[in-house]
């Protein structure tokens, strides 16, 4: 049905983009559901829950695009199909959670509960995620990328990624990217697993693009300069950048759907929607993330440790003032095992932004997050907040949407923006 819409979308760039994006999301979903079903007999309950959570997120992503082009009988049929598929997947995920928490005692199974219900899940079975340690040392490059492509090296990052074997179970495929600015769009597909991008350092090895939602018919998902689907992805010593100009719209520097991905000493530069931590389990260590509107967003289970989070000026009339949200987590179902954790991080502004802020603090308001979806979940632990974080701390999305279902937490943070006395409830 989706393929038929794509085939008959001549002249409608928006519908074409939505259908193309939906096909990729549904393909991801099918793969994750199959993986979840295979994990259960082996006692990998946490893996199964993570993968089913991602599948449900993909269904919502596909549905969310089609609701904006619901103008033909085909799109109406597709929407109905997606509604049913989402409901079935949500029910299956709820059953997975009940089984993981209560085991075979089906009489105890209930609808999924959250922290807002006073429910705090104890450690269950299948907790080993198969990952330990930090970024590997003494990596040997399998391929090299240079600006001139000399001496047997590749000239583009994409060409180097394409050289990786499909479905490598555990062996890393290391792409060493020498210092330089690589203006290209990079995609690491689902079958390219355990790819490692190794650069010469932030600001030295730069992958940059400028795709934006602004009038282009392209989805937020596809604006990413670098988009990763293959599991086990790693990166170090690279700047990922989106330089799309004003007016500010969604323009992603880096998007990850990679399970058990590990990114260290990397920089993410953009404005609105800089880092799309889309789904599954991700770890960011000692990274620098810069933007303004919802610039860390998505529905992954992501940990940001020892990271520097920086608010930058808006691209248009920055002196006028604004409301910025650092995070927009999009957990849409209470059974999804997703959320953002910020551990030992600092949240500040760039030098340019702080100059604006200090001239007129009352018009520049910055929040730790706002709820993109109903069950948005973010916690900040042992982190430092500069004065630019407003006393409210957290920002509503629209009216009272999600205010009774989200969970936002702060623990043992410091700095002038960490005072909890005037925080929202």
TrEMBL record:
Keywords on record: Aspartyl esterase, Cell wall, Cell wall biogenesis/degradation, Hydrolase, Secreted
Residue ranges with Polar residues bias: 323-333
Domain Pectinesterase inhibitor: 2-95
Enzyme class label: hydrolase
Pathway: Glycan metabolism; pectin degradation; 2-dehydro-3-deoxy-D-gluconate from pectin: step 1/5
Subcellular location: Secreted, Cell wall
GO molecular function: enzyme inhibitor activity; pectinesterase activity
Region (Disordered) location: 314-333
Record-annotated Pectinesterase catalytic domain positions: 142-424
Assigned protein family: In the C-terminal section; belongs to the pectinesterase family.
Protein name: pectinesterase
């Amino acid at each position: 049905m989706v393929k038929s819409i794509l085939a008959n979308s001549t002249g409608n760039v928006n519908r074409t983009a939505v259908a193309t994006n939906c096909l990729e999301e549904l393909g991801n979903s099918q793969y994750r559901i199959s993986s979840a079903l295979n994990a259960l007999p082996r006692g990998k309950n946490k893996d199964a829950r993570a993968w089913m959570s991602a599948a449900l997120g993909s269904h919502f992503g596909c549905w969310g695009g089609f609701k904006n082009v619901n103008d033909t009988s085909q799109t109406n049929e597709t929407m109905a199909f997606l509604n049913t598929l989402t409901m079935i997947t949500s029910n299956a995920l709820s059953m997975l959670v009940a089984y993981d928490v209560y085991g075979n005692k089906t009489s105890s199974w209930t609808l999924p509960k959250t922290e807002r219900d006073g429910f705090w899940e104890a450690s269950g079975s299948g907790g080993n995620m198969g990952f330990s340690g930090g970024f590997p040392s003494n990596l040997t490059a399998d391929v090299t990328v240079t600006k001139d492509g000399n001496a047997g090296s590749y000239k583009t990052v994409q060409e180097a990624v394409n050289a990786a074997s499909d479905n490598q179970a555990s062996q890393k495929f290391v792409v060493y990217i020498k210092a330089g600015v690589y203006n290209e769009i990079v995609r690491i597909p689902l079958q390219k697993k355990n790819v490692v991008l190794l650069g010469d350092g932030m600001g030295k090895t730069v992958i940059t693009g400028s795709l934006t939602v602004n009038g282009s018919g392209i989805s937020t998902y596809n604006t990413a300069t670098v988009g990763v689907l293959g599991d086990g992805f790693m990166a170090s010593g690279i700047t990922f950048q989106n330089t799309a100009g004003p007016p500010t719209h969604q323009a992603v520097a880096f998007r990850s759907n990679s399970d058990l991905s590990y990114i260290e000493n990397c920089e993410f530069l953009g404005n609105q929607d800089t880092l799309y931590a889309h789904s599954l389990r991700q770890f960011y260590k000692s990274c620098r993330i810069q933007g303004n509107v919802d610039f860390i967003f998505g529905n992954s289970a992501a940990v940001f440790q020892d990271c520097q989070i920086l608010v930058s000026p808006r691209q248009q009339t920055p002196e006028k003032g604004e409301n910025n949200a650092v995070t927009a987590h999009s957990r849409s179902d209470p059974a999804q095992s997703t959320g953002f954790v910020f551990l030992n991080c600092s949240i500040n502004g760039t030098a340019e932004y702080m100059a604006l802020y200090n001239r007129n603090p009352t018009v520049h308001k910055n929040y730790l997050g706002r709820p993109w979806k109903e069950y948005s979940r973010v916690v900040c632990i042992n982190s430092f907040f500069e004065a630019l974080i407003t006393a409210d701390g957290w920002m509503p999305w629209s009216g009272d949407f999600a205010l009774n279902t989200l969970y936002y937490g702060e623990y043992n943070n410091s700095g002038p923006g960490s005072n909890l006395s005037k925080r929202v409830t």
